[in-house]
Amino acid sequence: MVLNDISLPAGTQTLARGLEVIRAVAHGATDLRSVTEVTGLGRSTAHRLVQLLERYGYLRVAAGRDYSLGPTLIEFGFRALHQNPLPVVARPILEELAEKVQDTVHLAIVDAGEVLYLDKIPGNRGAEMRSRIGHRMPLTKTGIGKALILDRGDEWRALYEAEHRGSADGAEEFVGRMEDYRRHGAAMDLEENEPGIRCVSAPIRDAGGVIVAAVSVSATKPFMPAQRMRGLVPVVRAAARSISRSLGYGG
Amino acid sequence: MVLNDISLPAGTQTLARGLEVIRAVAHGATDLRSVTEVTGLGRSTAHRLVQLLERYGYLRVAAGRDYSLGPTLIEFGFRALHQNPLPVVARPILEELAEKVQDTVHLAIVDAGEVLYLDKIPGNRGAEMRSRIGHRMPLTKTGIGKALILDRGDEWRALYEAEHRGSADGAEEFVGRMEDYRRHGAAMDLEENEPGIRCVSAPIRDAGGVIVAAVSVSATKPFMPAQRMRGLVPVVRAAARSISRSLGYGG
DNA sequence: GGACGCTGTTCGACATTCCGGGACGCTCTC
DNA sequence: GAGAGCGTCCCGGAATGTCGAACAGCGTCC
Questions:
Q1: Domain end position, chosen among B33, B51, B72
Q2: Chain D footprint bases within 7 A of protein beta carbons
Q3: Is the Cβ atom of A33 within 7 Å of strand C at any atom?
Q4: In what order do the strands lie in the sheet with B114-121?
Q5: CA distance B187 to chain A (A)
Q6: Cβ of A133 and B78 within 8 Å?
Q7: Exposure of A235 by Cβ count < 10 A (0-12 exposed, 13-18 middle, 19+ buried)?
Q8: Where residue A69 sits, what CATH number does that domain have?
Q9: What is the pLDDT of residues A48-60, one digit of tens each?
Q10: So what's the pLDDT on residue A150?
Q11: Three-state SS for B147?
């Protein structure tokens, strides 16, 4: 997490370093020293970048020390969310689904090999889930993540092993369950990621039939017996299909 | 809107240009040409920056052309929102207020001389307002903006004139109304910004008594007769005071 | 149908720009 | 009151980014 130039960003190192500073602050660095430690930059350099980022509103600097992410990121973050047609067209359908099931509904995409939540409608019963818009989660440990990789059969094993280092057994069983999910057109999560939380999820496809997002319904175990999960499959699939059609999917 | 170096960005011009590219895309530039036009950069330079920004997830580039803001901004945007203690402690109080008044509730701060919305709870009646989290509005044309500048008596006239170029009369009347609002500890908006929308707003103060945010209740005119607006003043002020206390305000 | 004009993209030489050591003032600790 | 730690500023050397030119792929206009 110290060097970034491992990849191949040819020609622009100052911008890269600046973005690295933002990431450091996003990940909890709150003063100049921790920023230099995380980024590997010199004091002067880091300080100069911080100053510029503050001027642009990407960072907020309270009383010299105490950095935090700034208001410009709030503005552009929401703008990014709404520049994407998906959350906009999906919203009403998600609301309808939430109304019907009375549980927490999520919308998510794949980004950088992870689940990225784009929308969330909290359920009315049980404890509220800790998920938030903008949060990231592993692909193979969440129901919605599994729905997102439903079509990538040849990557299942590799993804599972990458996210389960240490205990790399269970891969066989995972692949078997994924086969099953693919046949049903919906994935499930039985408390793998978070104990006590279960969920049912279905993929959303664009005009070309490619999976671009997924919907899920989640609830605590008492509200999610096996029988109800089976009953939710067609409901969640119907919502996903409805969103897919809005994106031009014909199938 | 073409040049940025008008200010005094000491020492770091590449980062500044990169952030300028992001802003260009945020403001609607969707291809390389429009980015170069807005930023004033050369084709090569702009392209290199775009590449790096895409790699970091700040921009999304579909099929070479067609730029949009990327997923990293979504992630950091929400993180920025929740790193700030204000939206977190305010949330439950805003929900309670929304429940009580059944109209749209907003939370906002001042940023870069504008109102920046940090939270919104849509009302249950009338058309939904077009405001969104992350949106910006003028300070002197919105009720919540007026609440935010309630203590800045010496800037009222300048702010008003800055935001009302052309018809710079009415400044006297504006100042007069602000005096009135200050006495009551709450500001109002009578369809000045958006026809048909009225609102009542009150300032939130930190431990030092400085106004750091404001709450507002908005609704369409039929739901907001003058009498109800007067009745809402103590309600909105109570909510604002409750949030202020959570921030350490003693007053 | 051929040439143009417009995209996004790459490369390389020059000089501009940024890096980082060092020094300053400050606050808090011992 | 000495020291360490913080954020902040400056200046010379050199690594860095800039910009022009050129390439390839399309769509378009004559």
A1: B72
A2: 5-11, 16-22
A3: no
A4: B136-137, B114-121, B104-111, B211-220, B197-205, B187-190
A5: 24
A6: yes
A7: middle
A8: 1.10.10.10
A9: 898 889 888 899 8
A10: 96
A11: helix
